[in-house]
Amino acid sequence: MVGEVGDSEDCPRDADGASGGQPVSEDRIDGGCSDGEVEGTDIPDQVFVVRPVDGYPHETEAWEGGVERDGKSRSPDPDEKPEGCADGEHHAARKCVHTYYDEVASQFVRSDEEIVGAQNPGNGVNDDVMQERRHLLNLAFRMLGTFADAEDAVQETYARWYRLPESDREAISNPAAWLTRVASRVCLDALTTARARREQYVGEWLPEPVPEKSGDPLERVTLDDTVSTALLIVLDTLTPAERVAFVLHDVFAVPFTDIAEAVGRSADACRQLATSARRRIRERRPEPVARENHDAVVRAFADACRSGDLATLAAILDPDVVLRSDGGGFVSAARNPVVGASNVGRFLLGIIAKQPDLDVEESQTADGTSLTFWRDGRIGGVVTLRVAGDTVADVWIMMNPEKLSLWR
Q1: Residue 68 phi, psi (nearest 5)
Q2: Cα–Cα distances in Å, from 202 out to 148, 205, 351?
Q3: Which of 172, 198, 227 is the last residue before a domain boundary?
């Protein structure tokens, strides 16, 4: 049976970032924190070198066999000491242990063909577990709002699974439910620290827009109104526990008894969290319009922008329209909201005048028809609109290249 996922307070991490917690047994499988015993599992014994990224000591990149995770060739140096590792932690014959994902991350430094549909008892990978990847990705995206964060949460979930001894993995009667609870706990922890991280974010933070079709089907986020920019922005105003409870119950129909194990509260408390989330969403979520009306306004907006006439554009904008753009500090973008039809119109026409070589196309997203702009065949940004009546009430412009990966 699957035991209760403990609270973060019950799972202290040591100085190297490794999870503490009780040993895993058949009677108690602590999906949130237990490491299990790495030694004695069937994880391949191979040199695994890691290095810290962006100053966060436990967020790591890894390379193995002379190839980095980003595909760049590299010849490992036996005498190299990875940046951030103390003297004596690393030498050629042993693995560096200064890593958040521990040795289990080597399970994921492999091709898609090796991961998807793998069935190899020698390394503990099986179809049933890996087929949950898309479900977990959809769940994590709705909780976190970006594909990169969702991927990180899913990878951490699988890392915790393979960190368990094989005997304990076999004792779990419902791996899908276990993975869902652990992924939810990982997302809850990430949401808890998100506010502090966003205080250092450059400019406005917006959720990642999702295209109708994107890449590998196993990596695709299911397109529906629960991944619309309008709803994700409202979800971002909820408390972490409210968001997790709402997404699990109202979107994925997870019972409150299971949500309680992920959130670390009673089932009744989780029911109250979901109720509170629904109330806040009803109060803050704009009234939706018919898809045909929305798309017609978007096309009128695009035509007005192409005309270059401020009066024509201002007529399609709500008097209190708000424009927000997310460049993430990578590209030039307005760092503060632009408010009012005249100001938004001037801002948009100014961008168009400075970049006449942009190609603008219609694309389908969960919000309906959106506009994408391209330069030399490369995506430059996605413009998503919220329509109220026959006018544009919100303009969301995503230009952060890290949040456009699904569009490439």
Answers
A1: -75, 165
A2: 18, 8, 20
A3: 172
283 contact partners, CB below 8 Å, separation of at least 6: none
Q: What is the CATH number of the domain that holds 346?
A: 3.10.450.50
What 3 state SS string does 74-133 have? CCCCCCCCCCCCCCCCCCCCCCCCCCCCHHHHHHCCCCHHHHCCCCECCCCECHHHHCCH
Q: Is 394 among the domain residues?
A: yes
Is residue 146 within 8 A of residue 208, CB to CB? The reply is yes
Domain count of the fold of the chain: 2
The pLDDT > 70 percentage for the chain reads: 66
**Whole-prediction pTM:** 0.69
Backbone angles phi, psi at 267, to 5 degrees: -60, -40
Residue 312 burial (C-beta neighbours within 10 Å; 0-12, 13-18, 19+): middle
From residue 323, give the alpha-carbon distance in Å to each of 202, 320, 389, 393: 16, 10, 18, 9
By C-alpha distance, which of 3, 70, 262, 6 is closest to 153? 262
Whole-number Å distance between alpha carbons of 56 and 5: 26
One domain for residues 21 and 166: yes
**Max Cα–Cα distance, the chain, nearest Å:** 71
| Interval 83-113: pLDDT, tens | 444 444 333 333 333 333 333 333 333 333 3
Which DSSP letter does residue 399 get? -
Task: Say how many C-beta atoms besides its own lie within 10 A of residue 209's C-beta.
Answer: 27
The pLDDT of 162-183, averaged and rounded, is 95
Q: Give the range of the structural domain holding residue 324, as residue numbers without chain letter.
A: 291-407
For residue 363, what are the β-bridge partners?
Answer: 370
Q: Which of 172, 187, 206 is the last residue of a domain?
A: 172
| Positive/negative CA dihedral, 184, 192, 217, 295 | positive
